[in-house]
Design goal:
InterPro entries: CFI_box_CTERM_dom, FxLYD_dom
Order of helices and strands: HEEEEEEEEEEEEHEEEHHHHHHHHH
Oligomer: single chain
Distance between the termini: 114 Å
Number of domains: 3
Shape: globular
Radius of gyration: 28 Å
Number of strands: 15
Keywords: Membrane, Transmembrane, Transmembrane helix
Structural class: alpha+beta
Largest sheet: 4 strands, antiparallel
């Protein structure tokens, strides 16, 4: 070896060590959180979670690799995918979802490990995008819809603007990830400086959407990114100009009593958040109820604020409901103490539905009774239909409870049918009493 080569040797060694250090650093400066896995209806294994950039510089070209192993520790396969965000600023995170596509071997997967690589970049994305509104709903078929809007507060056009939505369960695990381009104009996803654009995100993983209790939103473009906004699925979302999470969601009652801090609104919210949403049966019913309620409540609440007579009428109608919920809460507390929360919420729901039927649907029952007396209706068929509905609802709830939460649509069907059957029973009872 020549003297020239000998003199160059330390420099070469230093470069090799530096490259190795950078490579090792790229692996070591990521961590994974909020992990969850499930197999969908097509036999595909989903691995979801959040990857965090623990370094002090932004990272780009991030690639996550999942290694899958069988029960004996043998490597079955490896699949790689980029996270939802193209670049991750220092100390920040991005959701991810990776699929195990070998359906024939998915039953052999016993364990998996996560690793990631990325390249450092000195250009952190500025937070010039701002999420200004958001609302969500779960439809009866299990699709979770999120409608949001973001404003570009930067000086440049935000090109290729995208909104990422992440659903979380009650244990803060990621259960679904989806994203959508901005609808800034015909065929455009670019948000010009100072303007805003809507986003429409549909999450179709119906085996998981019913389990969502919160969701996060983050918008990004080629130039900018936004802060991450976290909202509860039970609330009515984020209002324009307000970055605070709205917990109430009782739009009609809030408009009737003038404030979400009114004791009547607090009582309604306490029953929902403190009782219904803490049980599987109650949460399932609230998902269905919210899909129906929020389809019309914003319009009703808006009309209330401009019509004092209607506001007073709604306020009067809500008072009996407060008494009904007080009694239902007592029944829930008693049964939950001696038995369990699920039995308590079912009994509480039956009590509330019966009284709602007797109080609010009494005019309908009286009208049916008068019409039945005149036309001599035979109500025995109605009794048979109601008996079948009751039986179907109880069976559906029992099956969903025994399945341990994996039959969300069945639980939603059972709880909804139970409430409707109970209200209908009260109406028919009034009608029979009037007919006699």
């Amino acid at each position: 070896m020549s003297k020239k080569h000998v003199r160059l040797l330390p420099a070469v060694v230093a470069i090799v060590i530096l490259i190795a250090s950078i490579t090792q650093q790229a692996y070591a400066e990521f961590s994974f959180h909020n992990q969850f896995s499930h197999v969908d209806d097509n036999g595909i294994l989903h691995i979801l979670g959040v990857i965090r950039n623990d370094s002090d510089t932004a990272m780009e070209n991030v690639l996550i690799t999942v290694s899958f192993y069988d029960s004996e520790g043998n490597l079955l396969n490896e699949f790689s995918r980029v996270p939802a965000l193209e670049a991750i600023n220092a100390g920040e995170s991005s959701p991810f979802e990776i699929l195990y596509l070998d359906q024939g071997a998915v039953d052999r997967v016993e364990n998996f490990t996560l690793s990631a690589t990325g390249q450092t970049t000195t250009e952190s994305k500025e937070k010039q995008l701002k999420i200004i509104s958001a609302n969500s709903r779960l439809d009866l078929l299990g699709t979770y819809y999120i409608n949001a809007a973001a404003r570009n507060e930067g000086e440049e056009t935000a090109t290729n603007a995208i909104m990422v939505a992440t659903l979380y369960d009650r244990d803060d695990r990621v259960i679904a990830v989806s994203k959508a381009l901005a609808e800034a104009g015909p065929g455009s996803s670019n948000i010009t400086a100072g303007s805003q654009a809507p986003f429409g995100i549909a999450i179709t993983e119906r085996t998981q959407t019913y389990r969502a209790v919160s969701y996060s939103l983050v918008a990004y473009s080629d130039q900018y990114i936004s802060d991450t906004v976290v909202l509860q699925t039970s609330g009515h979302g984020l209002s324009s100009g307000n970055n605070n999470q709205t917990q109430s969601g009782c739009l009609i009652a809030t408009a009737a009593f003038g404030s979400e801090l009114a004791p009547q609104v607090q009582q309604l919210r306490s029953f929902r958040d403190g009782i219904a949403l803490k049980t599987s049966a109650g949460s399932s019913f609230m998902n269905v109820f919210n899909a129906w309620y929020y389809s019309f409540s914003p319009s009703v609440a808006s009309y209330e604020r401009h019509a004092p007579w209607f506001q007073n009428t709604v306020r009067t109608l809500i008072h009996p409901l407060l008494g009904i919920l007080t009694l239902s809460t007592s029944i829930y507390d008693s049964l939950a103490f001696f038995f369990n929360n699920e039995l308590g919420i079912v009994a509480s729901g039956i009590t509330a539905s019966s009284l709602i039927g007797l109080v609010y649907f009494a005019p309908l029952g009286i009208a049916l009774g008068i019409a039945g007396r005149r036309k001599r209706w035979n109500m025995s068929k109605a009794k048979t239909v109601l008996a079948c509905s009751w039986a179907a609802s109880i069976v559906a709830i029992a099956l969903a409870e025994l399945a341990g939460g994996i039959m969300g649509p069945v639980m939603m069907f059972g709880t909804s049918l139970l409430v409707l059957s109970t209200i209908s029973t009260a109406v028919i009872a009034i009608a029979r009493a009037v007919k006699l």
